[in-house]
Every structure is written in C-alpha cells, then in structure tokens.
Amino acid sequence: MIKKSYEEINSKIKNGTAVVLTAEEIISMVEEQGIAATTRKVDVVTTGTFGAMCSSGAFINLGHSNPPIKMSKIRLNDVPASGGLAAVDTYIGATEVSDSDENYGGAHVIEDLVAGKNIRLQASSYGTDCYPRKAIDTLITKDSINECFLFNPRNAYQNYSAAANSTDNILYTYMGTLLPKFGNVTYSTAGQLSPLLNDPYLRTIGLGTRIFLAGTEGYVAWNGTQFNPSKPRNEKGVPLGAAATLSLVGNLKNMSTDYLKAAVFKNYGVSLFVGIGIPIPLLDEEITQFTAVRDQDIQTSVYDYGVPDRSRPALKTVSYAELKSGMIELNGKKVRTAPMSSLYKARAIANQLKSWIQKGSFLLTEPVAPLPSEANILSLDERR
Predict the structure, then answer these.
(1) Contact at 8 Å (CB) between 79 and 226?
(2) Is there a contact between 200 and 233 (Cβ–Cβ < 8 Å)?
(3) What are phi and psi of 262, to 5 degrees?
(4) Any idea what the Cα angle at residue 84 is, between residues 145 and 250, rounded to 5°?
(5) Catalytic site positions
(6) What is the pLDDT of residues 170-219, one digit of tens each?
(7) Which of 11, 76, 258, 291 has its CA at a distance of 20 to 30 angstroms from the CA of residue 19?
(8) % helix / strand / coil in the chain, to the nearest 5?
C-alpha cells in the first residue's frame, strides 16, 4: 500500500517537484495507468466550485470615529447590518436586502467592498459615557476600515438535490425559475470537480484546511450548518443528497470579484456566488480512487418544489452526467436541465489553485481536527 504524508508532499511543493492535476485530469490518468501508478506519480488533486451560497457574510471592524460611537443600528449602502456586536464590529449577511432597493443587498455590499468602491456607513447609538456620539454618516472602503473577513456559515454542499415543479404556475426559488408541469429541472454543482465529492468521507478536509476562497487563501473554520454526513451513499461513497457542508473564513480585502459575485434571483431575493477550491493530497490509493469520481458515478435526487412540505418525496434519482447532458427523462417525457452554478468558473478555480501549488506559493495544511462523523441537523419539529 502506497502511503504519503503532508510533510513529504509539502517538501515537493517547496522544491517545485510536486505533480498536481485537477479533478478532471486525474480521471483520465487513473483510467490509463491505474490507481497505484497514479498514486505514485501524483501528489495533489485540485477541485473547484462556483455557485450561489446564501449562507455567507462578512465581519467588519469599521474603526472608531472621534468622538467614538457604540453603533447599535447600522446600515451599509442602506442594507441593515448587525449592531449586536462590540462598538464598531458588525456582520453583514449576504441575503440581507436594502431598505430602499429590493435588488441590492448584503452580497452587493460585500462585492463592492472587494472592488474597492465607497460604501456609505450610517449608524446610530443611544450614547454612553465612553461612547458619547449618537450618529454617524460617512463613506468607508476596504482600505479605510480595520479588519474585514468573509465568514460563511454554510458553503460547498457536498451534493445538492435537483429541482422541478409540478404545479400549473411558475415558481421562483433559490434554485432559479422552475417552469410549470415539470417544464425544466435545475441543479447546482460542479459534479466531478466539486470539492467534497472528491473526498466523500472528508479524510483530508477538516478544521484548519487551507483552501482557495474567492481568489485568495482561506480556511475551513468549522463544519457548516445543516451538516449531515450520514446521508445514504452509493457504492462509490458518494452521498445521494445534501450532506456535508463547510464553514469558511478568509481575508475579504485580498479577494477578487472574479470569484465573488452578488446575484438577484427573481421574486426570491439576493444571494452571493462564491468560488471555492480545495486541494486534496493523494495520501494513499483510496483517496486517489475517490478523486477519480466521474459525473456518471454521482447521483442526486430530483424533488418537486411544487410540494411545499419539506418531506416531499423524490421524483427520480439521476446522475450528473445526465443532468449535464441538458435533458433528462421525467415522468415519461424529455425535460430540459439547467445548471445554477458555473462549470467554467469551477475549472478556472481548480486551475488557479493548481498553478499556486506548482509555483510553491500554496502549501497544504493537515487538519488540526476532523469534521464530525454524525449529523448536525434536526428540524424544528424534531426538536420539539
């Protein structure tokens, strides 16, 4: 059995001899040369995904004014931000909507900050002896504030379900526009490039894992909310539905709007597209086998979003090869499919991360602790 360590792989990265492939490139090499030979030759596989991740936001330390203020109500470009932290700390959620423009929200504020644009800060306070000021209205940029870091509670779903609509009406959802009477099916994943599908048991992904996050390096801070790795799996180890998620953190000031984009979903609201890439070290043959997963090996369920009950039954199980073909069969008829994530961007992320590693500017980190092996999710009804 071939075994490698993080230290060995990082040493090769430092001296420029590490062999790095993307999660698409590894597939053909395994097919041509086999698992053992590929494991010997390749050190790291890079992954990528770029999709709407509503559970995202940014912590900002705005800096003190003179005289100082303890901000209790805060708006950034007329988008409400949290005033429940310390005097000039705030958190702005990606899906928070402007008080004056329903098509502008927290995601836009975050993108505008990254782009270096002026952001209007309006804040009020009840006033205290040590923070006497009661109001402020000024402009800030990412260079004028102190810390500003992206902290996303739930990103990079391991495998998300596809969506359809049985009703007679168009449905506007976070999975996009769903046409009546099963007129289309939407899905959101990079498939065989997707980070958590290339390491389905999270053997190399845990607390402290260094990743590509929106154009700069970031880290896995915790398991994501709605973390549920105990979902049923197929023979390849791939979960058959939404399973593990990640909580991620990174320096917003160093990010790029190429990989961080605000979006508006009609009649639903605002979201943030986030680019994530995770390097997977080939520590042994089992991990190599996992990284060679193909779209035809990855299945997900199609759900009817016309049924409002969260316990809605699955209509069908399909592979991502079928979904990516542009058409699947549903209830005896051909139905168009459409992605809600960008495969083009996912490939760009995997290749950018590959380039960083090959240049020696991005080393791998061994997790300081594993992510949980049990589900972290219960419904409100289950908790009662």
Answers:
(1) no
(2) yes
(3) -75, 150
(4) 45
(5) 130
(6) 999 999 999 999 999 999 999 999 999 999 999 999 999 999 999 999 99
(7) 258
(8) 20, 35, 45
